[in-house]
Amino acid sequence: MTTAIKTPKKLIEVALPLDAINEACAYEKMPGIGAHPRGLHLWWARRPLAAARAVIFAQMVNDPSWKWELENPEELPPSNLKASWAASRKRLFSIVEDLVRWENTSNEGVLGKARSEILKSWRETCELNRDHPLAAELFDPHKLPGFHDPFAGGGALPLEAQRLGLDACASDLNPVAVLINKSLIEIPPKFSGCSAVNPNSRDARDNWSRQWKGVEGLTEDIQYYGQKILEQARVRFGNLYPKILIKKELIEGQKDLQSYVGKSCNILAWMWTRTVKSPNPAFRHVDVPLASTFVLSTKSGKEAYVEPVIDGDSYHFVVKLGKPPQTAKAGAKLSRGAFRCILSQAPISAEYIKSEAVAGRMGVRLMAIVAEGNRRRIYLPPTDEQEAIAKSASPSWRPNLSFTHNSRYMTPWAYGLDNFGELFTQRQLAALTSFSNLVGEMEGQILSDAVSSGMAADGVNLEQGGIGATAYANAVSIYLSFAISRLADFGCTLATWKPSGQQVMHLFTRQALPMTWDFPESNFLGESSICWSNAVKYAHEALAAGAVGTKNATGSALQANAMEQNFSCGRVVSTDPPYYDNVPYADISDFFYVWLRGACRSAYPELFSTMATPKAEELVATPERHGGQVQAERFFLEGMTRAMQRLADQAHPAFPVTIYYAFKQAETDDASGTSNTGWDTFLDAVMRAGFAITGTWPMRSEQEFRMRGMGSNALASSIVLVCHRRPSDAHTVSRRAFLRELNQVLPTALDEMTRGSGEDRSPVAPVDLSQAIIGPGMAVFSKYAAVLEADGSKMSVRTALQLINRFLAEDDFDHDTQFCLHWFEQNGWKEGRFGEADTLARAKGTSVDGVKQAGVLVASGGVVRLLRWKDYPAEWTAEDDDRLPIWEALHHLIRVFKTEGESGAGRLLAAIVGKAESTRQLAYRLYTLCERAGWAEDARAYNEIVTSWSAIESAAAAAPKAQQTDLFE
Questions:
Q1: Do 396 and 500 form a contact (C-beta atoms < 8 A)?
Q2: pLDDT value of residue 555
Q3: pLDDT score, position 711
Q4: CB 164, CB 114: distance < 8 Å
Q5: Span 310-346, pLDDT tens digits
Q6: What topology does CATH give the domain 11-191+554-807?
Q7: Are strands 333-335 and 691-699 parallel, antiparallel or unpaired?
Q8: How far is the C-alpha of 657 from the C-alpha of 604, rounded, in Å?
Q9: What are the residue ranges spanned by the domains of the chain?
C-alpha cells in the first residue's frame, strides 16, 4: 500500500495580489527602466521577472488555511477562521508586493523575508511527512527542493527560482536558450567574488585591498577585453567605417550646417534602399528604388526627408528639411509588396519584384547618410565615395545556412533571400566575422591573464565543469559573443529606421524575419547608437543587474527534449511552454546560432556540435515541418501531453506545478458549429497528462508597447495554471454531484479572491475574476477521473467551463452576452485593451473575434469597445443574423423602441420570441448596474424596456404568426 503524502494547500491555490503583480509586470516591460537581464541576449515571449518571482514564491508558501483544510477535508470553515486566514494572507501579500517591485530585484532584505517564508513552509511540510517512507529522499527540512523549468527559453523562471534560494535547473531543446540560461544561472555563481584578471585591474593601487563582490570582476573584464577588441577591430577594418568630410555641396539647403563645413563627422548610419530594374522597357537599364518611405525624421523641429531628383533616365537623392510631404511618406510604395518606378511611374508588381529578386537582380543603393553633429543628427545626401567603400568590403566568411520557406514568419525567402548570410551587407558580414574572430583570439589573452592572476591552468572548459582559467576565459568570451548577437540583430538588412525617434530598430520587434525594403546600416566602430562599445555595455550591465552573484547560489542549464527529460524528479516545477504556433523558436534562433557557434564552441563543443538548432522535436505546430496543419496540430498536442505527463510523474509531490499559457483565443467552424480552440484544448491536454488543475490566474505578462502589440489586437495576458498530480485511484462522479460540489466550493473561493486581503478592496480585478474563478471550478472537475453525463458519456472540458461560468453569470446567458455583460461592468462604453478583452473572452468560452462577428463591438488598433444601441444598424433583421446573442437582441430592441415605440419593439420581440425572457432579465440587470454606477442616461434606456415590457409583449402577441414560426428558436 502506498503511503499518501500530506500536501498543505499553497497560497497560489487560494489567492494572489494580482493588482500588484500586474502593475509590476507592466512597469518591468517598459523601456527606460535601466539595465535588465533581458539585455544579455534577446529571446522571445519572455516572462517578466516580477511574475516569475511571485508565482514561484506563492507555489512554495503554505496558505494560512492549510492545517484546517488537511484536518477537515471537504468541510466549510467557520467565519472566524476565515477572517483570521485573511489577515495572515494580508501579511503574505505584503511580502509579494515588496518582492515584485523592480527596485527590489536585488534587495537582500526583501529577498531574505521571502526566503524565510519559503523555508518555514517547507519545514512545516517536512514535519507533516517525517514518517513517510521516502522522507529522507523527499523531505529534508535542512535542504529546500530544487527547481526545474523544462522549457527554460529566456531564463526568467530559473533565474528567479535561484534568487529565491533554490538550486535552479533549466533545460531546453534549443542551444541558444541553453546558453542564455547558462549565462544567467550557471556561470555567475562559478566566478562570484573573483577579482578581475585584466592587467589594468591587477595593477591598480587598491587591488590588494579591494573586496570583489558578486560578478564585479567578471563585468570589469568584459568591459576591458571588449575595449581591446574594439581597438584591434579599428586596425583591421576601420577603413570600412570612415568619417565623412562635410563639403559645401553636401549641405545645400541646410543653412544651419554651415559651421560644419570642412569638418569630419562620425557617421552613425548609412540609409539604404533595395532596387530592381524598372519594368518599363524605356528604363529597363535603371535600378529603381523600392523605398517604403523617404522620411528620415519626423521629430518636431528636426524633420527631414529624402527627395529623388529625376534627370532623364537617371536620378539622385537629395536631403530636404521641413515637414515631409505625403509623397515622401509614401516613398515609392503603392501597396503591400508593390511599388512604382520613380522615373516612369509604372507600377512594379510584387510578382515582378519576386522574380527579379530570385533571379539575383535585386540590389541596394545608398539613399542618405546620418552623421553625428553637436548633440544632434545631421542628414546628408549619399556620396559615391561612401557607397564604394561599403561595397568594397570582402568578408572572409559568411553564414551558409538556409532557413525555412515559411510565409508567415520568414518572408525574405520569397525574394531569393533564404540563407542567413544573405541578410547582411558585405560590410556587415566583414565586421561581424572579424568581431567573432577577435573574440576567439582574445580568449587566449584572457586565459593567459587569468593564469597570471592565480587561476588554475587546468585546461578544463565550461562544458566539462571547469572553474579555473580556461573556464573563466570561456565565460568572458561568451558574454562578449552576446555583443555580436546584438550587433547582428540591429545590424542586418532586416533592421528598420524609426523616423520619430531618429533611431535604428532591431530586426526582432516581433518573432519573425519580415522583409524590409529600406534599412539603416550602423557604424559598428562608432561610440554611440548601435556600435560594439554599446553592445558590450549592454552585456556587462545586464549581467550585473540580473545575476545572483553569491557563491552559495547554484544553477545548471542543460539541453534536453521536454518530452523525454528526467530533470524534474523531486523538483519544484514552473514552466512557460511554447504556445502552439505563436513563436517559431528554432527557425528564428538560427539567426543568432550561426554567429554564436563560432564564438562559443570552445566553451561548449557539444552544445554547438550541430550546424543548426534542432527542429524535428521542437514542440511548435509548424505545418511546413510536419506535412500540413492537421499533422502539425496532432504533433503539438501529442507532444505537449507527453511533456506534461513527465512533469506530472516527476515533479515534487508536495508542490503544485505552475504552467504559463498565453495563446490568443480563436474560433473554428466545424460540423457542430463554432467552437473555441487553444484554451480548452490546452486544458484538456494538461488533464490527460494526469494533472488536476487547482488554480488559474490571469497576469499581464505581455509587452503591449512592442511593435506587434501597437496598432494590432496582440496578446496581452498570460494565464498561470496551477496543477497537482491527480490520484491514480480517482473515481468518477455524476453531472448532478459535480454541480452540487461546484455550488458548495465556488462561493467560498469567490469570497477568498475578492476579500482575501482582509480589506474591502478586491485583490482580483473584476475583469480578471471570470478567469480566476475557473481555477477552483476546474479543481473540482479535474480531481475526478471523469464527470459522467446522464447518458454515461464523459463531460468535456468545454462543458465544464460553461457550467463554471454560469456561477458568475447568474443568468443562463449565451457566452457572447456573458462577455459583454462583464466587459460593460468593467469599462462601460469606453475603450479597453484587447489583451484584457481576450482574457475575459477566453474565460467566457468565446473570443473577441467571435463577439465582433456578432456585431456588438469594434476591435482594432489594439483596443476594444462595445457599441451603443445608437450605433446598431437600422437595416438589421433578425432572420439574417446567424449569430444573435441576447446582448445584441436587447440593444436592437432599445433602438427600435426609441424610434418606433412599443409596436415596433413588439414586432422585433415576436421575431426573437425564443430569447424574450433572457432579454428582459438582461435589461433588468443592466438597469440595476447602471443605476448603481450613476450612469443615468443608460439606466433610463434599460428602465424604459423593463417598465414597458408588458406592452411590448402584447404588441408581440399581435404580430403576424408567420414571423414567429419562421424565426422561433
A1: no
A2: 96
A3: 39
A4: yes
A5: 999 999 999 999 999 999 999 999 998 899 999 999 9
A6: Rossmann fold (3.40.50)
A7: unpaired
A8: 31
A9: 11-191+554-807, 240-430+491-512+515-522, 815-958
